[in-house]
Amino acid sequence: MTQIIDRRLNGKNKSAVNRQKFIRRYKKHLKKAVEKAVDKRSITDIERGERVNIPAGDISEPTFGIGAGGIRDMVYPGNEEFAQGDQIPRPPGGNGGSGKGEASDSGEGEDEFAFSLSREEFMDLFFEDLELPNLIKTQLATETQFKKVRAGYTHSGSPSNISVIRSMRGAMARRIALASPLKRKLRALEEQLASLPSQQTPDSAAVITLKEEIKQLKERIRRVPYIDTFDLRYNNRIDQPIPTTQAVMFCLMDVSGSMGEFEKEIAKRFFIMLHLFLSRAYERIELVFIRHHTAAKEVDEEEFFYSRETGGTIVSSALTMLADIVQERYPTSEWNIYAAQASDGDNWGDDSPRSRNMLIEKIMPYLQYYAYIEIGEGSPIGNLWQEYEKVSTACPNFAMEKISGPAEIYPVFRKLFEKQSS
Amino acid sequence: MSANYLSQTSEWTFDLLADYDREIGRIAADFGLQTYPNQIEVISAEQMMDAYSTVGMPVGYHHWSFGKQFLSVEQKYRRGHMGLAYEIVINSNPCIAYLMEENSMTMQALVIAHASYGHNSFFRNNYLFQTWTNADSIIDYLLFAKNYIHKCEERYGADEVEALLDSCHTLSNYGVDRYKRPSKISLHNEEQSQKAREAHLQSQVNDLWRTLPSDNSKPDEEAKEALWPPEPQENILYFIEKNAPLLENWQREVIRIVRKISQYFYPQRQTQVMNEGWATFWHYTLINQLYDEGLVNDGFMMEFLQAHTNVIYQPPFNHPYYSGLNPYTLGFNIFQDLRRMCENPTAEDRDYFPDIAGSDWLKTLDFAMRNFKDESFIAQYLSPKVIRDMKLFSVLDDDAQNNREVSAIHNENGYKHIRHTLAEQYNLGSREPNLQIYNVDRRGDRSLTLRYEQHHRRPLNRESDKVLKHLSRLWGFAVRIESVDDQGNIEVTHEQRAD
Q1: Which of A20, A84, A101 is facing B408, going by the closest CB pair?
Q2: C-alpha separations of B219 from B225, B329, B440 in Å
Q3: pLDDT for A347-377, tens place per residue?
Q4: What is the Cα–Cα distance from A248 to B155, expressed in whole angstroms?
Q5: 8 Å CB contact of B461 and A105
Q6: Which of A244, A284, A404 is nearest to A44 (CA)?
Q7: For the residues A67-75, what does the mean pLDDT come to?
Q8: At A175, is the secondary structure helix, strand, or coil?
Q9: What pLDDT, on a 0 to 100 scale, did the predictor assign at position A375?
Q10: Which ranges in B271-326 belong to alpha helices (H)?
Q11: Between 20 and 30 A from B292 (CA), which of B59, B100, B216, B298?
Q12: H helices present in B79-219, as ranges
């Protein structure tokens, strides 16, 4: 007979494996789609997956079929005006708009296969094989944040932490342990008393001693305390340092006259990528934008990328500001600090050594990572690169790369964060 | 009066499902429908999409193409481009039907009537299903296949297995015996015989490639001429499984699995119109009977009729939504008209269908359901009235002519032509290219030659080259297709060298 079964509670992701297989197979295409998608996004707009397209031709499952051409006689529904023998001109460049099945086999204008990647899938593809350097916090500051976690039971503590169950359990165990030998003895004596010949008088010596012993035993049993301070157990909580799960990312950009729209665009994309990447490792990320020419200024995202200014270039002004902001607002105990600097390499001659010293002494000790990208083709205009190379040798968490065009952003980014083969 | 209604609102409950199933089952039995026992499973939309992507197989081996299917269904569904089907039904014993939890009580009743009694009785009684599929063991077999392929992935690597499955899938339509009757499959036999097969296969293959001529008296020339295989082979996957020289045993087994599953679905591909028409006819008839007996109210009926009308909507050929003939409509109309001819025959019916007009409709429909497939069903039963109602017409498209020509319309002159043409249209043999394995060059480069019998000068499609690549991967040597046109001229149209 009919059986009715409720299957709704069964797992619904039966196709998850197939989906993973599909994604694995078309990773190459998907990666391309992902890269393309990133170009269009704003720097903070990352909290979503992406609709991606794959050319249907690449993922088709071909089968033998009958192609266009030859003679075919087909039946259609809904005739209105045709009579037998009517001639219908063939539409140019196709074998019949109303044709079905076979006609579409001719493969004109293949659709793209479109579907959505979840955010995780999107990010996984985007940052495959990359890792964040120096995830271990540089312990410079002493004040670390703690949180209380349970850690078993102790003998001492404040009354509010008494664990009643544990205490009572201990008390019961102790009572049993202390009283049971006495009880055993008591039982033996009582049996002995009962087994005495009945003709003996109640006041005979044997009876009296037995009764006396029984009385004493009962007294001892009674004196076993119901609960003892010894039984008390307290919930134990210990301090555990909290790993810092927030990060701040400093974006430094040169906006002097030598930086054009093109360079800025490249810098922007690079910052977007870094932000995306960091947001995978940290719950919360703050962004600080510092732009500079001869003087540095903290600005919001909009102004950072789009307002125009001109002038000379003093890099150290931005670095000073960075160091100040770190001191004021971002204690290293609470924040993981990252910085990325984009520049065309131009700087006033005597400022570059100053910038170098500044980095090595005042900034790098507090930072998780500092990435410097120099945008532009050919040899650098200023001497910033040479000076920074010295920083790079001095500090392992300082990285620098050159980018000459948009196509290089992603490769350079990958290079900076590639998994260190250990 | 209202006390008789099974339900008053559109909310369904498990108790109500049981009530409706009991009543529908009772009416179906009164009409003489024979069915497998039913198993009705309530699932969520998400699960329905899962079921979709594995062509309704409740268990299936894993392959990326099912994932692709799932993604595209999911995408369309989420953006509202497509509603999910109300039901999926599986040809098994017991017959499993999935109901979606989102459906209203009316829709659940419709689906129960459609799937659990309509499709179910078709699976149980149609000769193709009787011959080709074994409802008792299919679930077990699918389970065996899933586990076997999983084991292969572990042992030989997922990539290797995936590549093999890709190749098999492209050829799965050619993994079917069209004429030979298959042996019944069951899990127990399958596991036992799988080992036996493994042992025997290799020796068999070696035999084919024995390089020393066994009989020296035969002149070399004659041996070269002889074709092998002696008869052309239509089941390409079967031929590969048994004869491809370089395959490992596990690969042969995987080919076999794809082939068996393809064979299982073969009858469904051949009886689309009949199967859907039959199920639609019965949900219509059964629910109307419920209404006549006063078990459902007017609101229920209105919702039912609307859904039913949507199911059998046939957009005309020049409509933007037109995408071929709707099998539900065509099948439903034919069965519906069969019943009419039995109950209220006209002079025309007596002329065209002297045996049917005025006969017992239950017997006539039962016979029609049992003994035909789409092609022969249409050739036998497409009546002038259905042709007129659907305004069917046929267009002859000859690429040697400048214009296409209307070859027949729904009038006295055209009925026979349309019936014949439509039947031919549903002949799988003419819908899929007729490709057969013709020869293996056993003495030379071991290349495999297929012959394509062109019908009306129709060429193979463009994907054929890609398919040939897969075939060559399975065969291990060069593969080519010779096309034979209507005049008997032979020409090599596709060729794939071995890598």
Answers
A1: A84
A2: 11, 62, 19
A3: 887 888 888 888 888 888 888 888 888 887 7
A4: 48
A5: yes
A6: A284
A7: 86
A8: helix
A9: 85
A10: 272-292, 298-311
A11: B100
A12: 105-111, 120-125, 127-132, 138-156, 158-170, 187-208
